[in-house]
Amino acid sequence: MSNVAYSSKKVFKKALFNIGFQVVPIAAALILTPYLIENMGKDFWAKYSTGISLVFLSNYFSFGIGPTLNRRVSQIIGLKQNYRIQAELRECVSFSYLLGLAFFILLQAILYASYISESFSILRTDQDYVFYSIVLCVFFLSFLIIPYKSLLESFSDFYFLAIARAITAAMLFLVPFFYISLFDVSLTGISTTLLFIYVILYLLYFVRAKSYEGKLSFKMISPVNWEMAKGLFRFELGFLKETIWFSIFFATSAIVLFFDRFYYPLFFDTRTISDHVTLLDLFNRVAIVTGTISLVYFSAISVWYQENNLGRVTTNLKLQLIGVGLLFFVIALVSYFFLDTILLWWLKSSYSNFIESNGFRLLIGTLLVNYTILLIRPLQAIGEIKQVSVWLMSSTLLYLIIVLFLGAFYLIDYHFVAFITKALIDVIILVTLLRRKKIL
What we know:
This is Oligosaccharide flippase family protein. The protein is mostly helical. The protein is 83% helix and 0% strand. The chain has helices at 2-5, 8-21, 23-60, 65-79, 85-117, 126-154, 158-182, 187-210, 213-216, 226-231, 237-263, 270-287, 289-306, 310-347, 353-371, 373-381, 385-408, 415-436.
């Protein structure tokens, strides 16, 4: 499998296929966001956008169990020891149940405390509380999907994953669109529909992963059995150590991507939060091409490094950095001249002074932060997880201090400063680490 599924040509084709399918959620966002803001109102849209952010947090609260499974199974495939896959999968599934349940209970408690205190502008009514409670159920299901999704990543099944991710991301816009078209605006109804869809997604990921049993000569485990129950409190030490360092990476990523969305509502009204989140969601959907590409190459780099094929690692890494660098430069150049016009045309009556003032500089900050993913993933793929995580803790702490200051002094217009500061420092350090490992 290593010589075929992980050839440079095949990995490159899968990367292009995944990038191509990103058009689906981007198109859904571009077409439907103005309609949803107009018909839901900025108050409901701010709440819905924040709720969806909670669903994405499952990937960041997962203690890195997904990439740990991905890297370890990719290494097993590189060593041609596929019989070990079952044990690694059992470890990851057990961990996903334990962490998912623990965070579900913790976040429900935080949600209730926040509702009682009425501290947040996005959580004031009974309907708000019910909406976020249902969203946390979706969050839990997202946790349970992680092991099977990560297993498919290690198998380099990125054609299926591209389609599944595109549909999932597009559903976040299509579900409220169709619900509002058929019924009244109801965050409870929309979130319940999303919950049903995630149940179906869980089953699809499991069935797809199980289809590889014969091809790779390993035995899938049932998601509900006595061995899984025992594994909830008994973990293999090597797996646990690796997840701890990956968890730091995901915690820092969650802070950079989502902390402001839950912190700024303490100081700003829902209209400002709606505009801020709308810009960040749009720009991240474009810039996340780095996450898509690096994810496709992650398992391949791990296999190539295990095979001691450093030349292939270096060549493909440079291809990513140059290609995405040129793309981002073109986006920034076009946006410098036309972004305000595009946003005005796109948002129409929802366009505001805040969006006009902050659009371009938030775009630049978002592009830079996302570009660093291309530098982080290769280091993780070759096992330098601890070193990367230690550095990211330091730069994220600086980012956090800046954001806390901006919120406390009502300076949300300068949020881009936090993005750019962290990104530039990370680029300098990560490039140095890559060169030391002789893969750049």
